[in-house]
Amino acid sequence: MQDGYTQVAITGDDFLFFAGRAVEGMSTILGELGDELANTRPGLPAANTPFALLTHCLGVMEYWGGHLVAGRPVRREREAEFHASGPVAPLQARAARALETLRDDVRASRPGASLHAEPDPGALGPRRELTRDSALQHLYEELAQHHGQMEIMRDCLLAARRPADPVEAPIEWLRAKQGVKWHRPGPSLLPAWVADMDFPLAPVIADAIGAALGRGDLGYPDWDGHPLAGAFADRMDRRHGWRPDPGHVRGVTDLIQSLQLTLTLLTEPGDGVVAFTPSYPPFLRTLESMRRPLVAAPLEPGPGGGWTWDHDLLEQRVRAQRARILLLVNPHNPTGKVFTAAELRRVADLAERHDLTVISDEIHADLVHAPHRHHPFAALDAATAARTVTVTSASKAFNIAGLRTALAHVGPAALRTAWDAQPPDLYGATNVLGVAATRAAWAHGDPWLAAVTAHLTRQRDHLAERVAALPGVDLLVPEAGYLAWLDCRDAGLGEEAADWFRRNAGVELSAGSEFGSGAVGVVAGSRARLNFATTREVLDLILDRMAASLGKGNGFRPPEAHLSASG
Predict the structure, then answer these.
(1) Residue 66 is assigned to a structural domain of this protein
(2) How far is residue 357's CA from residue 35's CA, in Å, rounded to a whole number?
(3) Are residues 432 and 217 in contact, defined by beta-carbon separation less than 8 angstroms?
(4) Residue 435 belongs to domain spanning
(5) Could you tell me if 312 and 289 are in contact, meaning their C-beta atoms sit under 8 angstroms apart?
(6) What whole-number distance in Å separates Cα of residue 549 and Cα of residue 529?
(7) For the chain, how many structural domains are there in total?
(8) In this structure, are 295 and 406 located in the same domain?
(9) E-strand spans in 114-209?
(10) CA 225 to CA 556: how far, in whole Å?
(11) Per-residue model confidence as pLDDT tens digits over 314-367
C-alpha cells in the first residue's frame, strides 16, 4: 500500500496487448460492415459513422502516442476525423500500420518520463499532470471506450438493414406509394401493369444512398471516365463470362435515350429498324415519332413451346425496307423469351449480311429463370461486338428506375466518335445517387437478388397454374423476368383485354395494343401483359378477381372507395 492505493504494475507488453485488441476489434467490425454500412450513421443520438470513429481513434493514437509520448511532430485535424469517409480496406491497412508504430513508440519510452509537450486542451484529455505512462493509460481508455461504442453501432446498423423477408410488402405499404404503378390507377384497382416490382429496396442500396446523403455528397462528382464502367465490366465477366472494354462505356439516363441517340447519330428518317414484336411500347413510340419505320419480326408460339420467328420472312423484309438498325430485346419484353446462343448466332449473321448496327437491350438479364441462361449478344465474337451497342441498367433487377441511371457499351468505333462529339451534357448527366445505388447493387446485391429471383420463379409457376384454370386465357410460361403475356383470344371479351379486366375485375393490366402485333393473325388487343412481381397475397387477389370476372362478366363494382387487404 502507498498513500492508500495498491500499486499495480502494467508492462508495456500488457498495454500493447489490450490496446491492440481494441484497435483490431474495431478494424474487424468495419470489415463486417463493408464500405456502405461503415460509412453510415446509426440511429443513435449524435453518433458518427464507424469509419469516422476508427479514423478518430487513429488520430488519438498519433497524437497521444506519437506526439506526446514519442515526441514526433503530428499535424492533426481533430474535427475532420469525425467526418471522414471512404473504403474500408485502406483504413484497415492504416490501422495495422498505426499499431506497429505504437508498439515501437511504447517500447522506446522511458517509464515515468515527462511528456514531450503539454497536451492541447482541445484534445480533451484528463485534467491532471501526466507522465508518458499515464498518457498511455489515457490512450487505452479512449480505445476501449470507442471499441465498445463501435460494437453498439455495428449491432444497430446490422439490425436496421436486416429485413424479415426481401419480398414481404403489406398492401397498405404498397397503397401509400406515390409511384406510377400504384398511384395512377387509383384505390379501386389492383395494379399489375407497369414494370415495377412491389418489394422493399435492397438494404445494400439503401445503405449506399444513406451513406452518400450522410456525407452530404450531392455536389459535382469527381469522376475520371464513366463511374460505372469498371463495375459493369466486372459484373458481365462474373455473371456471364464476357469481359467488355470499360473504355467503350457511355452514360445514359435510360435505355430509351440510348436508342434515340443511336438513331439520331446513325440513321435518317425513312431508315428501317428491325424489332421482334410484340415490343416495348416506348421503343415503338420512338420509332414512330422519329419516322424510322418498323421492320417487324413477329414472335409466334413454336411447335415445341416457346417463341420463335420466321427468319426467311425477316430476311426478305430487311432487304426490302432499307433497314439500318436491329433492336434486340433479350430477355424479351413482353414475352419473357430468352434467346438461345444458336438463335443469337442467326441474328448476328443477319446483321453482318445486311450491315446492321445492333442495339441489344439486356436490362432483364439478371432475372433469367433456371435452367435458361442469358448470353450477351456482344460476347458472340469480336466482329459482333464491333457492331453492337449493349444497353443495360440495374433498374429492372433492383427496382430503381426512378434513379435514372443506365449505360451503353458502344462497340462501333464510328458511333463512339460521333457520340463523343455531341455537346457536353446535351443528353443529361449521370446521377450521383444512381451511381452509388448501382455500384452497391452490382457489388453486394446478389444475395438479395437471388431471394427475389427465387420468389419470382415461384410466382411464375403459381401464375401458370392459375391461368390454366381461367377460361379462354392462355400463357406461354416466361423464361425470364416477371411479365406474363396473356393470350385472351378465346375468352370472348369483345374488346381490348386490359379494358375488359379493368371494368369487370378491377385489375389494371398493360394493354396488348400498345405492344404491336404479337403473332401472325393475332389481334394485339386480345393480349394483355400481367406483372407478377408482387407478393403471393396480391397476385392471388388479382387472379381471384380475373377468375370471378370471367365467370360472371357482369361488371366490377368496388365494395368501398379504398380497398383493404382482403379486397
Answers:
(1) yes
(2) 40
(3) yes
(4) 216-443
(5) no
(6) 17
(7) 3
(8) yes
(9) 190-191
(10) 54
(11) 999 999 999 999 999 999 999 999 999 999 999 999 999 999 999 999 999 999
Q: Which amino acid is at 141?
A: E
Residue 527 near residue 278, CB atoms below 8 Å: yes
Residue type, 337: K
The closest alpha carbon to 165, from 541, 455, 564, belongs to: 455
Place of cell 443495360: 392
- Rounded to an integer, what distance in angstroms lies between the CA atom of residue 12 and that of residue 17? 9
Q: Do strands 307-308 and 323-329 pair parallel, antiparallel, or not at all (unpaired)?
A: unpaired
Q: Are residues 37 and 96 in the same domain?
A: yes
Q: In which band, very low, low, confident or very high, does the pLDDT at 516 lie, cut at 50, 70 and 90?
A: confident
Please choose, from the candidates 347, 373, 342, 346, the residue with its C-alpha nearest in 3D space to the C-alpha of residue 360. Answer: 347
* Spatial separation of the C-alpha atoms in residues 228 and 364, rounded to whole Å: 18
Beta pairing partners, 273: 294, 325
Residue linked to cell 387472379: 543
Residue in the block written with cell 463470362:
241
CA distance 475 to 490: 12
> CA–CA separation, 276 vs 510, rounded Å?
18
CATH of the domain at 540: 3.90.1150.10
Q: Nearest-CA neighbor of 415 among 225, 248, 244?
A: 248
Flag whether pLDDT at 395 surpasses 80: yes
Q: Of 166, 165, 171, which is closest to residue 540 (Cα–Cα)?
A: 171
Confidence check: pLDDT of 45 > 90: no
CB 291 within 8 A of CB 281: no
Q: Specify burial of residue 250 (Cβ count, 10 A radius: 0-12, 13-18, 19+).
A: buried
d(CA 345, CA 509): 34
What distances in angstroms separate CA 53 from CA 91, 154, 470, one per listed residue?
11, 12, 60
In the chain, the amino acid numbered 536 is R
pLDDT for res 8: 65
- The burial class, CB within 10 Å (0-12 / 13-18 / 19+), for 43 is exposed
pTM attached to this predicted model: 0.72
Q: Helical H runs in 164-310?
A: 171-175, 180-183, 203-214, 229-240, 255-266, 281-289
In the chain the first and final C-alpha atoms are separated, in Å, by: 79
The answer to whether residue 3 sits within a structural domain is no
